[in-house]
Amino acid sequence: MSKLAGKVAIVTGASKGIGAGIAKALGEAGAAVVVNYASSREGADRVVAEITAKGGKAIAAHGDVSKSADVKRLFAETKEAFGGVDILVNNAGVYQFQALEEITEEEFHREFNINVLGTLLTTQEAVKHFGPEGGNVINIASTAVTMNLPTATVYTATKAAVTSITQILAKELGPRNIRVNTISPGGVETEGVIAAGIIGSDFEKQMVSQTPLGRLGQPGDIAPIAVFLASKDSGWLTGETLYAGGGLK
Questions:
Q1: How far apart are CA 58 and CA 50, in angstroms?
Q2: Catalytic residue, candidates 37, 95, 155, 243
Q3: Catalytic annotation on 155?
Q4: DSSP classification of residue 102
Q5: Domain 8-186+222-234 sits in which CATH superfamily?
Q6: pTM given for the model
Q7: Residues of the chain whose pLDDT is less than 50?
Q8: Kind of pairing, strands 32-37 and 87-90?
Q9: What was the pLDDT predicted at 118?
Q10: What local confidence, expressed as pLDDT, does residue 196 receive?
């Protein structure tokens, strides 16, 4: 029997990259999946098509996780389509590496609004929709938190906040049988990483040289960890951060 049969999962920022990989893996494990996207409807529809082609259930749902009205609508659409929600994957995130002199108020708020406020708003709404059996929240942080990369001040600060939020909410929500855990990926080859020009750069070479397993990760390296955290296999884990970077820390 599929590990997640009968479960409903929302994956934010799932039109591409790590989020798309997680959405497809949750679908293969038996969950009905809501593929959230902010800008790329085409990408979200493609992920939905891949899930349904394998016999799974999925819909695409637009929403900016930093806006409470969008978040409420996202969960309302989920309830209408699948009746409820059991799993929330807070994957939506943005980044821009900037030297201290280049940091602007606008960029600071963009990253904190999506990466941190978005995580809080979606989790806040999920708690209202989880059933009496509880629920499961999986936050996506980054090994940037432990690497302390120059020019990644704002992004690293947002992911450090997400890591702390996980630990706090695990204690706060545990009595309601809601588990909260974090996956912290290392360098992963995604559309965003390619668009940023990282592939083939000195930065990529540096990351790979510091990764014991000797390569960048792929979304498919992260997705099975999310399935594990979403399933009963990890039923005794909450408040944990699983580093998924091939040993990169």
A1: 9
A2: 155
A3: yes
A4: G
A5: NAD(P)-binding Rossmann-like Domain (3.40.50.720)
A6: 0.96
A7: none
A8: unpaired
A9: 98
A10: 75
